Amino acid sequence: MDLDHEFSLLMAEHAFGLTSYQILERLYSPPSTHNGDNTVSKLISFTVELLEGTILTIEMTNNKFKVIKSTDLSLDMPKSYDDFSALLIDNSHLYQQKMNSMISDRLFQHLNTL
Predict the structure, then answer these.
(1) Is the dihedral of CA 20, 22, 27, 32 positive or negative?
(2) Using an 8 Å Cβ cutoff, are 56 and 45 in contact?
(3) Beta strand extents in the chain (DSSP E only)
(4) Which pLDDT score is estimated for 90?
(5) Residue 105: predicted pLDDT
(6) How many angstroms separate the most distant Cα atoms in the chain?
(7) Theoretical Cys-Cys bridge with 51: which of 20, 24, 56, 73, CB 3.0 to 4.6 Å?
(8) Do 69 and 50 touch, CB atoms closer than 8 A?
(9) In sequence order, which residues have a C-beta less than 8 Å from that of residue 49 and are 6 or more positions away?
(10) Where does the UniProt annotation place the signal sequence (predicted)?
């Protein structure tokens, strides 16, 4: 998985508070060519199963995330992750600090390998 894909998943974890889950499926855009240069495929959606069994399909567009399918029919489907995040994110100070630290650590590791 390249840096773009990993960073996208990290941002989704942060946006949705996905701390106990399993990724079931990732869908990537096909690689395209522009003036003969190959470009990498981009992660455009992924399906996750949360610890309590809810399965979500999350779509990504321009680094914004949105839930497009959920097996929990009691959830009012949101238009964007800003609405949905209130349902899943634990907004405690320690949680935010932990997530920010994890994202920073991962990015720092990747930058050191470049």
Answers:
(1) positive
(2) no
(3) 21-28, 33-34, 37-38, 43-50, 55-61, 64-70
(4) 40
(5) 64
(6) 48
(7) 20
(8) no
(9) 21, 22, 24, 55
(10) none
Q: Is the CB of residue 48 less than 8 Å from the CB of residue 24?
A: yes
Mean pLDDT of 39-50: 72
- d(CA 111, CA 26) in angstroms, rounded, equals 24
Q: Report the mean per-residue pLDDT for the chain.
A: 62
Question: What is the rounded CA–CA span in Å between residue 22 and residue 76?
Answer: 22
| pLDDT classification of 28: cutoffs 50, 70, 90 | confident
Element (H, E) at 12: helix 3-16
Whether the CB-CB separation of 76 and 6 falls below 8 Å is answered with no
